[in-house]
């Protein structure tokens, strides 16, 4: 006979479907509980029936012992099958349906017994306790088999023990009562099992719908895949329950938001604090690809509700992209400025060529001096007032770009900024954003002008940028610092509404502030205060100090003097 193909072999064991497994386990549990409950009920029932039988036997024995004819017969008549003791004992036995009633004297000799031949013989069980005046209840086995017994002492009129009375009830009758109760118990247990099976079926159906009829192994594999995917992707994932509390964070979300496992189980307001990022995660701000700022990071957030009332939010780091986009915008602006300068330079060269051809040499020299002097004066003025090279270069470049757009960018005469900045790149970001916004606001208007002022108060840097534009209404002065809010058309690389938000975040990170008000001549005036933005000034060594530095300075001075 050929072996059974593997596909047709009977497989024993647990089924793979969750519905079948849950139903089978719950039915097994219900059956086990029913059997256990039946056993726990039968055990005390058997003991209770034994106690009841023994108490009944004891009661019959006490009733028999209280009959005066019994005690008088034991004292006055010999043991005889036709004696008064035997007749009275048999009458009581038949009336109570006891298995036997045995009356005996102090010598253990029977005066009564259901079997007449046993009268006059000694009993087979020890009646010492009853003859000592104590009542006895027990389950024992005698000449008539196993029975429930009750033994009491037999007293005469002088209350002296003259014998004992032993009554037995057949144990088989007790067992019969117990057995007769079992079908009813099994009926109840069967009913309970049926109800349990129905409840198990309903629960299994619900579990089947919620698990989409997947096997436990499939669910375990899905969980493992989910953990690997969540912690492996380069997007932040934040899951919230129906109460709005954070229940899951992957590694990227922890990095982007700057929080850890302590945030799990807490609301976004408690874990992140107030801000646009919190509003997006909590669902108070809706939309797709919402821009938020967390620390120095620019994030793109999306929030998707799920069936259980919670939500899943995804976060993408757009900081580098935003920086590249701004650099691209700056590069395009510089290219346009260079193109315009090239055109302007060509016009100047044509003018110079014409002056030379007309032999107006003095005018040509004057024209070249004016052109070169204007650019040199502007750069020298900025470098003299702003000693930090990054900021000076930024302002010179912004002035050139602004001029090509018809905007005059002035650096205030009160500007004084030493080269002792703790975070020059941060201040470059702040100045660049404010100047760009001011130039955009006044471009295309008459007498467009932007003025920038950088001054120090101790170690505090105060930046002021004002323009001659339309200004900002009072009800929108706080709104302009909100991430994603802008009145300008989005650039090609993405969305606006990030610059002023970054300005305020950078200022607040250093313990400062960023505010806006109306300028003196109209327009908007932005003020940024940065406390502790400068390092302590270095002390110059005196001539009296004998230090290696002083010696070096002295040697250098002497060498220079000799060289002269």
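-> sequence recovered:
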């Amino acid at each position: 006979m050929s072996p059974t193909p593997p596909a047709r072999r009977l497989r024993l064991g647990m089924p793979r479907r969750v519905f079948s497994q849950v139903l089978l386990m719950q039915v097994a549990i219900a059956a086990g509980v029913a059997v256990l409950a039946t056993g726990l009920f039968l055990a005390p029932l058997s003991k209770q029936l034994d106690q009841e039988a023994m108490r009944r036997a004891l009661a019959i024995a006490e009733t028999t012992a209280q009959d005066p004819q019994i005690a008088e017969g034991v004292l006055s008549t010999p043991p005889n099958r036709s004696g008064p003791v035997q007749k009275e004992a048999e009458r009581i036995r038949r009336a109570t349906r006891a298995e036997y009633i045995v009356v005996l004297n102090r010598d253990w000799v029977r005066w009564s017994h259901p079997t007449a031949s046993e009268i006059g013989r000694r009993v087979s069980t020890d009646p010492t306790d009853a003859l000592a005046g104590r009542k006895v209840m027990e389950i024992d086995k005698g000449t008539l088999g196993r029975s429930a017994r009750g033994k009491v002492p037999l007293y005469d009129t002088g209350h002296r023990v003259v014998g004992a009375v032993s009554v037995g009830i057949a144990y088989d009758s007790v067992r019969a009562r117990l057995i007769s109760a079992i079908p009813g118990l099994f009926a109840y247990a069967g009913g309970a099992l049926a109800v349990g099976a129905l409840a198990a079926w309903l629960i299994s159906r619900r579990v089947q719908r919620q698990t989409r009829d997947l096997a436990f192994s499939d669910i375990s594999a899905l969980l493992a895949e989910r953990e690997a995917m969540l912690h492996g992707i380069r997007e932040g994932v934040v899951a919230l329950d129906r109460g709005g509390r954070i229940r899951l964070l992957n590694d990227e979300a922890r990095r982007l938001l700057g929080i850890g496992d302590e945030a799990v189980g807490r609301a976004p307001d408690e874990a992140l604090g107030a801000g646009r990022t919190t509003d997006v995660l909590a669902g108070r701000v809706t939309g797709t690809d919402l821009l938020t700022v967390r620390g120095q990071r620019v994030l793109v957030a999306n929030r998707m509700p799920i069936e259980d009332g919670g939500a899943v939010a995804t976060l993408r780091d757009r900081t580098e992209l935003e920086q590249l986009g701004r650099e691209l915008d700056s590069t395009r602006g510089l290219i346009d400025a260079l193109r315009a300068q090239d055109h302007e330079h060509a016009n100047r060269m044509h003018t110079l060529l014409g002056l030379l051809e007309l032999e107006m040499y003095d005018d040509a020299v004057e024209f070249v001096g004016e052109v070169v002097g204007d650019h040199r004066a502007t750069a020298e003025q900025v470098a003299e007032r702003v000693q930090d090279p990054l900021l000076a270069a930024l302002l010179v470049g912004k002035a050139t770009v602004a001029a090509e757009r018809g905007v005059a960018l002035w650096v205030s005469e009160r500007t004084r900024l030493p080269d002792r900045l703790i975070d020059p790149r941060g201040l470059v970001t702040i100045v660049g954003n404010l100047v760009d916004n001011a130039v955009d606001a006044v471009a295309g208007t008459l007498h467009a002008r932007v003025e920038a002022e950088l001054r120090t108060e101790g170690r505090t840097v105060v930046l002021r940028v004002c323009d001659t534009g339309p200004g900002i209404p009072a009800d929108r002065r706080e709104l302009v610092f909100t991430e994603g809010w802008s009145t300008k058309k989005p650039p090609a690389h993405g969305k606006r509404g990030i610059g002023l938000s970054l300005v305020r975040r950078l200022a607040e990170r250093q313990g400062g502030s960023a505010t806006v008000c109306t300028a003196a001549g109209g327009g908007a005036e932005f003020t940024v205060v940065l406390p502790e933005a400068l390092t302590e000034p270095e002390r110059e060594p005196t001539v009296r100090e004998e230090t290696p530095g002083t010696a070096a300075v002295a040697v250098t001075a002497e060498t220079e003097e000799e060289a002269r």
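Residues 235-317 form a domain with the Beta-Lactamase fold (CATH 3.30.450.20).
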